[in-house]
Design goal:
Helix 1 packs parallel to helix 9 (381-397) and helix 4 (109-120) crosses helix 8 (306-326). The chain has nine helices and 20 strands. It folds into two domains: 3-46 and 57-97 and 153-222 and 343-397, FAD/NAD(P)-binding domain (3-Layer(bba) Sandwich); 104-141 and 228-340, Glucose Oxidase, domain 3 (2-Layer Sandwich), CATH 3.30.560. It has helices spanning 11-22, 76-81, 87-96, 109-120, 155-164, 205-215, 264-270, 306-326, 381-397, and strands at residues 3-7, 26-30, 48-49, 53-54, 126-127, 168-170, 175-181, 184-190, 193-196, 199-202, 222-224, 228-235, 249-252, 256-260, 280-287, 293-295, 300-301, 334-335, 339-340, 364-366. It is globular. It has 398 residues and is of the alpha+beta class. It starts with a strand and ends with a helix. The strands form four sheets. Strands 3, 4, 5, 12, 13, 14, 15, 18 and 19 form a nine-stranded mixed β-sheet that branches. The structure holds flavin-adenine dinucleotide. Flavin-adenine dinucleotide binds next to helix 1, helix 6 and helix 9.
Length: 398
């Protein structure tokens, strides 16, 4: 039987471990972070200030513990053009995870005002598809801190299933080096211990995966994107928007998306002695940024290009128009600094891995946001899960 080592337990790692274990393959998953209660996931953010602020989490389950629960198909056309058809995998996932918009009971006044305002400006804003169980979710605005009620899908769900199918999950075990023998993968090192394997699948995220590839002599880490975003907001008295489900609606612009979003940074920028969190209404402007960043052994650089700044400005002016129509005092508008929550592209398909996600080293694969060929400008988890399903089918047949 094949021995497979999976490195990292976020979106890509948990999904590939679960699928491979389901097919009866011997899986050992090594995760750098520790296990944590979902409600405490915010303690595991290890953000990097790299020009834009890059958001990610290191713990069992990875960054999936702090998502907003958004589940959309992204990069589908780009991947299709590369010969990667994920239609079946999306279809399977949308059923397995009960993906869809939340019921009306889970829409708060702030989100509804934004949706109505968009509509009266002739803009089509739809309900966001979510992997959130509405029977467990009591809206509290805490998705990105870690769900207090486990109502949101995260990689922890898949890790539990992977273990039930026979996978071995080892936490607090950072992989530091990849071992290649005669051009073929032979294992990895963690804590000076060698783990032997017939195949290794790197899923350590777009910052750590290229560094691990570097230990095997592969060149990776160029062309980092992050789906740069800002939150634009202002004052609407007593709206209580901070307790609503974040990003519960979606407007698709040309190169950017808009979504209702609260950020405490809005409140602090306006001045906490001037206004309170219950008086803020805001929107996220998230762009499809250029792949202008890079990851080195000890550095990450990602600045906004003039193209990125143009898209942020365009999206922000539209968000401002919608928020004004929704009743926000236009004199109170502020914006957060640029941040990025979707790092990817650093081991892209067609550049570092082939269409089966294999590197030029036989048996060494990558399955995380690193492989995405361009910035999705939209939530990437569903596409990473679909790629993991496709890869697992490929490995189980070969
Ligand atoms: C606040 C926030 C909200 C978000 N909301 C959404 C959303 O609603 N929908 C959506 O689709 N996306 C969302 N995202 C983005 C999404 O979470 C990421 O794109 C996705 O988790 C990336 O998956 P990944 O497998 O590449 O990396 P990760 O999920 O980050 O997993 C990488 C894993 O590898 C581990 N690791 C790192 N180095 C090593 C090592 N050397 N050895 C072993 N393990 C290692 C890490 O600890 C981590 O567990 C959000 C992100 C943030 C920050």
């Amino acid at each position: 039987m094949k021995n497979v080592i999976v490195v990292g337990s976020g979106a890509g790692g948990a999904a590939v471990a679960r699928e491979l274990a389901f097919y009866g393959i011997n899986v050992t998953l090594l995760e750098k972070g520790r296990p944590i209660l979902t409600e405490n996931a915010h303690q595991c953010y290890d953000n990097l200030d790299v020009g834009v602020e890059l958001l990610k989490a290191t713990c069992l389950g990875g960054t999936t513990l702090v998502t907003a629960g958004n589940a959309v198909r992204s990069c589908q056309e780009e991947l299709e053009a590369m010969g990667i058809n994920l239609e079946n995998e999306y279809w399977e996932l949308e059923r397995e995870l009960n993906i869809g918009p939340l019921p009306d009971t889970h829409f708060g006044e702030g989100t509804l005002k934004i949706m109505d305002a968009a509509s009266s400006l002739g803009l089509s804003m739809d309900k966001m598809p979510k992997f959130i169980n509405p029977r467990e979710c009591i809206p509290c605005g805490k998705c990105s801190f870690g769900c207090p009620r486990n109502a949101k899908w995260s990689s922890l769900n898949y890790l539990e299933e992977a273990e039930n199918f026979g996978a071995k999950i080892i936490e607090n075990s950072p992989v530091t080096r990849i071992v290649v023998t005669d051009g073929q993968i032979s294992g990895v090192y963690s804590h000076e211990q060698k783990y032997m394997a017939d195949m290794v699948i790197l899923c350590a995220g777009a910052v750590e995966t290229p560094r691990l590839l570097g230990t095997a002599g592969l060149v990776a880490g160029e062309h980092l994107f992050v789906d740069t975003f800002v939150t634009v907001g202002g004052v609407l008295k007593d709206i209580d928007f901070h307790k609503e489900i974040s990003m519960n609606a979606l407007y698709m612009g040309d190169g950017f998306i808009l979504s209702p979003h609260y950020s405490s940074l809005i409140n602090s920028r306006i001045g906490k002695n001037v206004t309170s969190e219950k008086d803020i209404l805001g929107m996220m402007v998230k762009i499809r940024d250029e792949r202008s960043g890079c990851v080195g052994d000890s550095t990450v650089i990602k600045n906004n290009t003039s193209h990125d700044v143009g898209l942020i400005a365009e999206g922000s002016s539209l968000a401002g128009a919608i928020l004004t129509e929704a009743g926000v005092d236009p004199g109170s508008f502020v914006s957060t600094p640029a941040r990025g929550a979707h790092p990817g592209g650093t081991a892209a398909i067609g550049e570092v891995v082939d269409e089966n996600l294999e590197t030029e080293i036989s048996g060494l694969f990558v399955c995380d946001a690193s492989v995405l060929p361009s910035a999705p400008g939209a939530p990437p988890v569903l596409t990473i899960l679909a790629l993991a399903k496709r890869l697992s089918k490929y490995i189980s047949k070969n």
